[in-house]
C-alpha cells in the first residue's frame, strides 16, 4: 500500500460526504491500519486531494494539516452539518453523511 492508493480511495468520497480513517483502511484491504491512513493524509499538501473528508471513527473532526477550522469550513461549504468548534467538533448525523465504499472495486 502506498500513498497513491490512499489518495485514489479518498477521491471516491463525494462532496457532502465523509468517511472515517477506518472506512478508508477497510476499503484499501486487509492489514491496513487506520493510523497509517492518517499518517499518509497528514503528509499530503495537495489541495486537490480531499483529505478534509476523512474524520474520526465516531464522526468527530480530526486533525488537518491546514488547520482544523479550515477542515470544518470546507466540510460545511460542501453541505456537511458540523456541531462544535475545533477538535471538539463533530459531524451531525454521521450515519447520514457517511460514505459507503461497499460498491467500490479495488485495483
TrEMBL record:
UniProt xrefs under Pfam families: DNA_binding_1
Tagged with keyword rRNA processing: no
GO molecular function, one term: methylated-DNA-[protein]-cysteine S-methyltransferase activity
Gene3D superfamilies referenced in this protein's UniProt entry, alphabetically: Winged helix-like DNA-binding domain superfamily/Winged helix DNA-binding domain
GO process annotations (BP): DNA repair; methylation
Keyword DNA damage applies: yes
Positions of the Methylated-DNA-[protein]-cysteine S-methyltransferase DNA binding domain: 5-80
PANTHER family in the cross-refs: 6-O-METHYLGUANINE DNA METHYLTRANSFERASE (PTHR42942), ALKYLTRANSFERASE-LIKE PROTEIN 1 (PTHR42942:SF1)
Protein name: Methylated-DNA-[protein]-cysteine S-methyltransferase DNA binding domain-containing protein
